[in-house]
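Structure first, sequence second, as always.
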């Protein structure tokens, strides 16, 4: 029972939830769960897609291309990322959840996720576990694991 002097807002666990997405099937499940949780909590949703920069060396996995071509490729990646988060925003708003669509340009996905959560004053980060196993996980690491390790904001990881 609520006391007359308190508001219902004081009882909501989360006010602003950041959901990190890459558009994959697994991250779409995390997005659906984040939208549902935001709806239950009355929280605002911040949808984030981190856009990598084009690798500039062979060792980073890049191919030699002209500077104008790099700009075109990066713009295409940024446009695709914006379309992904805009779709999340549209879905959330159709379910009555206030939402924001943002992108961040960074090669360090985990740092960009944590920085966005801080900048937008999010009190929960929701993301998918990408399920790398064995040697791939050892060599590539896990962005989700890095967010879990370094974030001061609670992180909900979905499989």
């Amino acid at each position: 029972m609520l006391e007359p002097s308190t508001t219902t807002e004081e009882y909501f666990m989360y006010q602003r939830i950041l959901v990190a997405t890459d558009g994959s099937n697994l991250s779409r499940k995390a997005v659906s769960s984040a939208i549902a949780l935001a709806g239950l909590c009355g929280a605002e949703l911040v949808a984030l897609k981190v856009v990598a920069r084009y690798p500039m060396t062979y060792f980073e996995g890049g191919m030699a291309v002209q500077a104008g071509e790099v700009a075109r490729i990066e713009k295409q990646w940024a446009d695709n990322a914006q379309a992904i988060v805009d779709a999340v925003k549209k879905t959330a708003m159709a379910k009555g959840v206030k939402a924001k669509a943002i992108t961040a340009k960074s090669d360090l996905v985990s740092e960009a996720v944590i920085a966005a959560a801080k900048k937008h004053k999010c009190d929960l980060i929701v993301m998918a576990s990408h399920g790398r196993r064995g040697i791939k996980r050892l060599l590539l690491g896990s962005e989700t694991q890095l967010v879990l390790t370094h974030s001061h904001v609670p992180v909900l990881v979905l499989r």
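Margin note: Residues 92 and 120 are 17 Å apart (CA to CA).
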